[in-house]
């Protein structure tokens, strides 16, 4: 697995389950050693990354490291 180090770079991603991850940012937007992140499928994702669910709803990574549904 790629993200084993604490200092990994974080990228802004759009995720479509089950495992389709598209990077929105070409450059890192943070560092896992000092910036908040969320975990999905054993990978770290930057704050602002979104999960696009099959039913059309979206979930976003928040500053506290949790995934929250968008209204």
Global outline: globular
Give the overall average pLDDT.
89
How far apart are the termini? 33 Å
Q: How many distinct domains?
A: 1
Structural class by SSE content: mainly beta
Q: Give me the side-by-side strand order of the main sheet.
A: 3-2-7-8-9
What low-confidence regions span 5 or more consecutive residues with pLDDT below 50? none
Radius of gyration: 12 Å
Task: Count the beta strands.
Answer: 9
The SSE string, one letter per element, is EEEEEEEEE
Major sheet size, sense and barrel closure: 5 strands, mixed
Task: Give the DSSP E fraction (strand runs of 2 or more residues).
Answer: 35-45%
The helix count comes to 0
Helical fraction equals under 10%
Region (Disordered): 1-36, 49-71
Biased composition (Polar residues): 10-28, 56-71
């Amino acid at each position: 697995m790629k993200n084993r180090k604490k200092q990994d770079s974080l990228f802004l991603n759009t995720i479509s389950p089950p495992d389709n991850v598209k990077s929105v940012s070409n450059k890192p937007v943070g560092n896992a050693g000092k910036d908040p992140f969320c975990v999905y499928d054993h990978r770290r994702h930057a704050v602002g990354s979104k999960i696009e669910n099959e039913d059309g709803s979206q979930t976003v990574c928040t500053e506290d490291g949790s995934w929250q549904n968008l209204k």
